[in-house]
Write a structure and sequence with these properties.
The chain has 18 helices and 26 strands. By secondary structure, it is of the alpha/beta class. The protein folds into 2 domains: about 10-325, Rossmann fold (3-Layer(aba) Sandwich), CATH 3.40.50.12780; about 470-580, 2-Layer Sandwich (GMP Synthetase, Chain A, domain 3), CATH 3.30.300. Strands 14, 15, 16, 17, 18, 19 and 20 form a 7-stranded antiparallel beta sheet that branches. A hairpin with a 2-residue loop joins strand 19 (about 435-450) and strand 20. Helix 1 crosses helix 2 and helix 2 crosses helix 3 (about 75-90). The termini are far apart.
Length: about 575
C-alpha cells in the first residue's frame, strides 16, 4: 500500500514535509566518515526545518521559478540547499565545485554551465564563495553573480511554514550531462518527472519505510542524487551517505556500512563491485554480514558478467544473495531509471562477436571462443516501454537485431534547457508507422531477446572509465587545443577493452601542411603533450595515441566523425597510421 505521505503529493518537498509532521524523530539522513563513523545526522523534522529555512532565504531574494546554481562539496550543505530549492519552487542546478588545485582546468565546464543556465544566484559554502571572489577579477563570469553562503546556522530568515505549491510540469532541477565542454546540456527534470521516477524505483525494487540504504555515489549526478539520496526521502527510509573519496581509498568501507546499518538497498557502477572483490581479504571478509542486502543494483557504465560472478563468488559466503544483484539501465534524460525490474538476478547471453559487428545478435554457447557475453539490463514495465529502432529509417527492429534503444514513460524529462531543436529530435521521436506515441532516443545501442534488453554500444559514444562519464568530443577538443598539428575535427576518442578494463584510445590526423618549410613534427614530444593535457583535464591515462594520415578518420557524408567505425578500424589495425605511441 502506498504511504499516505505520498498520496496526492505534487512534489518531493510536500512528501518530506508530511513525513516530518507524522514521523518527526525518525532518522532520515546520516553522514558517515571512515566508513561507519556517524558524523552528522538528521531526523525528518530537522531536515524539513533546514529546507524551509533555505527556502525562506531563496524567497527573500525573489527566486521562485528562477535558477540557483549549487556549488558544494558532497555533504550536508548540498543536501539542505537542494531540498531548499524544491521547497521554494526554485530550479536547482547541481554542479561540481571547481578544484582549487586545478582551477584553470575545472573552471571551463562550470563557466559553460553558468553561460547556459544563467543562474540568478549561486548557493555555496563560505569557503567556495570566498574562493570565487578571489578569482572574480580574472573570471568576470563569477564576479557578476550573486553568491549566497548557506553554511551559517542563522541565515537571518524565518522558515517557511510549508513548501511552495508545485505543478507537475514545473521544473524541479537541471541535470547537466556533459563533461568538460563549452556547450553542456541541461536536462529539464520536472517535479512530475522526479516523482514518477522515484515511484518507478520504489515499485520495481520494492522499497518502503522498512528499507535502508547507503551510498558513496556523488550527489551531483543523477544516480547518486535520485536513487542514492532522494529515494529515501520519498519512500521514508534512512539514508547513509559517505564520500566518494572515502570509498575509493577503502572500497570495503561500503560493505562495512552495509553490515553495520543492516542496509537493504545500495548500488553503484561495475568498477565499484570490482574494487570490492580486489580488496577482499580473509580478515576483512570475516567481519562482513551482507544478508540484509536485498537490492544491489549495478549501472552507470557497462556491466560485466565476469565482475558480477566474481562478486557473488567472493561475498555469497558472507550472506550476499545472488537474487539481490541486478544490472540497471538509466540516463539523466529519464530522470534516472529507465525500464527494468529487479528479481531475476544477473541474466547473461553469449552472442557471436562477428555477427554483432553486423548488428545481429546470434546466440552461442557460453565459453565459445567466438562469443562475447552480454548482461541483460532491463525489460518493459507497466507504464514504460522499450523499443529497438533503426536510427536512420526509424523503423522498429525485431528481436535479435541491434539498433538504437528508444524508451517512453512518465519520468522522461522535458528536454534540454535552451536547446529546442535538439530536444525535439531527442525527446519527441516517432517510430515509422506508429505515429501516435512520442519516444526518447537514448543514443544507446542494443537489442531485445525474450523481452530482455542487452546493451551493445555507448550512449552517444559516451566513454565511461572508472565510473566517470567522458564525452569523446571533449577529449578530441583537448587534443586539438594541446597540439596545433592535429587537424581540427579530424580525431576520434573511444574506449577499448584491455584485460577486462576500459582504456582510452585517441586517433588523430596530422596536418602536414603545418610542417611545410619548418621542422618535422617530434612525434614523441607531441604524444607526451597530449597525454599530459588529457591527464590534467580528465585524470585519465591514455592507453594509446595513434597519429593518422590526412583523410583517414571515418566520417559520415555530412562530415560527422564515425567513432564506432574508427574504433573497429583501430581494433582491426586498418587505420592509415603515421606512427603510434603505446602506453
Amino acid at each position: 500500500m502506498v504511504s499516505d505521505c505520498i498520496s496526492g503529493a505534487t512534489s518531493l518537498a510536500h512528501i518530506l514535509h508530511r513525513r516530518a509532521g507524522r514521523h518527526p524523530e525518525r532518522r532520515a539522513l546520516t553522514f558517515l566518515v571512515r566508513g561507519t563513523e556517524q558524523h552528522k545526522a538528521y531526523s525528518f523534522a530537522a531536515l524539513d526545518q533546514r529546507a524551509r529555512t533555505i527556502a525562506a532565504l531563496l524567497k527573500a531574494h525573489g527566486m521562485e521559478g528562477e535558477r540557483a546554481l549549487l556549488l558544494y562539496p558532497q555533504g550536508a550543505e548540498y543536501v539542505e540547499s537542494f531540498l531548499g530549492c524544491l521547497y521554494a519552487g526554485t530550479v536547482a542546478v547541481p554542479a561540481y565545485p571547481p578544484d582549487p588545485t586545478r582551477l584553470e582546468r575545472t573552471l571551463g565546464r562550470l563557466l559553460g554551465i553558468i553561460a547556459d543556465c544563467r543562474p540568478k544566484v549561486v548557493l555555496a559554502t563560505k569557503e567556495i564563495r570566498d574562493l570565487a571572489a578571489a578569482f572574480a577579477a580574472q573570471v568576470p563570469g563569477l564576479g557578476e553573480l550573486k553568491w549566497l553562503a548557506t553554511d551559517d546556522e542563522d541565515l537571518g530568515v524565518v522558515p517557511l511554514a510549508s513548501p511552495a505549491d508545485a505543478r507537475s510540469e514545473q521544473l524541479a532541477f537541471l541535470q547537466y550531462t556533459s563533461g568538460s565542454t563549452s556547450s553542456p546540456k541541461g536536462v529539464m527534470v520536472s517535479h512530475g518527472n522526479l516523482l514518477a521516477n522515484l515511484a518507478h524505483i520504489r515499485g520495481s525494487v520494492e522499497l518502503g519505510e522498512d528499507s535502508c540504504s547507503v551510498t558513496w555515489l556523488p550527489s551531483f549526478h543523477d544516480m547518486g542524487l535520485v536513487d542514492g539520496l532522494l529515494e529515501g526521502f520519498y519512500s521514508g527510509y534512512p539514508v547513509y551517505l559517505m564520500s566518494p573519496a572515502d570509498f575509493l581509498k577503502h572500497p570495503l568501507r561500503w560493505l562495512q556500512a552495509v553490515t553495520a546499518f543492516r542496509v537493504t538497498h545500495s548500488g553503484g557502477p561495475n568498477f565499484g563491485y570490482e574494487l570490492c572483490v580486489r580488496k577482499a581479504t580473509p580478515e576483512a571478509l570475516s567481519a562482513l554480514d551482507l544478508s540484509s542486502w536485498r537490492s544491489a543494483y549495478c549501472g552507470a557504465e557497462p556491466v560485466r558478467a565476469g565482475t558480477m560472478r566474481r562478486f557473488l563468488e567472493t561475498f555469497s559466503p558472507r550472506g550476499f544473495s545472488a537474487s539481490a544483484l541486478f544490472p540497471v539501465f538509466g540516463l539523466a534524460e529519464t530522470t534516472l531509471k529507465a525500464p527494468g525490474r529487479q528479481g531475476r538476478g544477473v541474466v547473461t547471453l553469449s552472442v557471436d562477436k562477428k555477427a554483432l559487428e553486423a548488428d545481429q545478435a546470434v546466440p552461442l554457447p557460453t565459453g565459445d571462443a567466438q562469443a562475447t557475453e552480454l548482461v541483460s539490463c532491463g525489460e518493459s514495465e507497466e507504464g514504460y516501454g522499450l523499443a529497438i529502432v533503426e536510427p536512420e529509417s526509424r523503423e522498429r527492429l525485431p528481436d535479435g537485431r541491434v539498433g538504437e534503444i528508444w524508451v517512453y514513460g512518465p519520468s522522461v524529462a522535458q528536454g534540454y534547457w535552451r536547446k529546442p531543436e535538439l530536444s525535439e529530435e531527442t525527446f519527441h521521436a516517432r517510430i515509422r508507422g506508429e505515429d501516435s506515441r512520442e519516444w526518447l532516443r537514448t543514443g544507446d545501442l542494443g537489442f531485445l531477446r525474450d523481452g530482455l534488453l542487452y546493451i551493445t554500444g555507448r550512449r552517444k559514444d559516451l566513454i565511461i572509465i572508472g565510473g566517470r562519464n567522458h564525452y569523446p568530443q571533449d577529449i578530441e577538443w583537448t587534443v586539438e587545443a594541446a597540439l596545433p598539428e592535429v587537424r581540427p575535427g579530424c580525431g576520434a576518442a573511444f574506449s577499448v577493452d584491455v584485460d577486462g578494463e576500459e582504456r582510452l584510445v585517441v586517433v588523430a590526423e596530422v596536418d602536414t601542411r603545418r610542417q611545410q618549410g619548418g621542422e618535422s613534427l617530434d612525434l614523441q614530444a607531441a604524444a607526451a603533450t597530449v597525454r599530459q593535457a588529457i591527464n590534467e583535464a580528465y585524470q585519465l591515462r591514455l592507453h594509446e595515441l595513434v597519429f593518422l594520415k590526412p583523410g583517414s578518420v571515418p566520417k559520415t557524408s555530412s562530415g560527422k566523425i564515425q567513432r564506432q567505425a574508427a574504433r573497429r578500424a583501430y581494433l582491426e589495425r586498418g587505420l592509415q597510421r603515421v606512427t603510434e605511441e603505446a602506453a
